[in-house]
Amino acid sequence: MERKTILITGGAGFIGSHLTDLLLSQNHRVLIIDDLSTGQESNISQHFGNPDFQFARASIMNEVVLDRLASEADIIVHLAAAVGVRLIVEQPVHTIETNIGGTEQVLKAALRYRCKVIIASTSEVYGKGSKIPFSEEDDVLLGATSKNRWAYAASKMVDEFLGLAYHGQYGLNVLIVRFFNTVGPRQTGRYGMVLPRFVKQALNNEPLTVYGDGTQSRCFCNVFDVIKGLTSLIEHEDAGGRTYNLGSTDEISIAELAQRVILKTNSKSTILNVPYENVYTADFEDMQRRVPDTGRLNSLVGWSPAISLDETIAQVVDYERKRQS
Ligand code: UDP
Q: DSSP state, 189?
């Protein structure tokens, strides 16, 4: 792809910072807006001083900064959001306002400068759907509005509707990516994500906290595979106006994941089953299974993940060991 200027909202975060590394290595210009609420400066500080890189520490609700950056951008990758189940349950107002208001600001700015936009969404929007695997055109089934976990899914659904509406009504080149469980170095366990939490617990020989009975399963995709899928969508001229699942189809139960992490770290840790009500509220609903159908992305750009879960665990262990030393 010819050299482009790409604005990444949430670029100091887990996925955003890896995407920044890749795009800069491909000779693109990268602008980041991030308020460091969940992102970290250390994820991007290796690029400070690079003339192709700019970092604005600001919220996406800051219209002036967002407008200035959008005016220079060809493409906006909108990753800034309130994410992580724990954050959502603890801060529902922040989640709803950031996710809906932020996307609105990004789309308005993109329209002013006719930027291509990629909006990050989430497999959470499939909710409690039980038809496996999940395809982009499937119906979605969310829980009651009294259960604030679903506020995240609903906020992201509004983002999707809004993005597709900008495409349909204004002809803006917008596409939606639904991320499934993405894992790898730089992910923090602070907001509930399971793999960095298990790895940290194992390295400290503490019990691994498996919520519920551990039979619930997920498909974990390595972030280096995920950013390759993302860049293929960034580059594709004709991907707009649609939604794409992006994730692995390799399923593993959380109990088995815990065992795998213990094995890989040679840890003395045991497994501790923690009832959901001890972690969240009594009415918390988890999803039992979540498997993507990635056929749409695969047939468009030929993407499929290449890195195994064992290799990913090794990368995360390596990262956490370095952080702890
Ligand atoms: N989980 C767990 N122990 C933890 C953190 C998470 O058993 O310390 C479980 C969680 O209940 C869910 C799965 O691991 O079933 C994946 O959680 P994560 O927050 O990483 O992603 P989610 O799929 O919920 O978005």
A: S
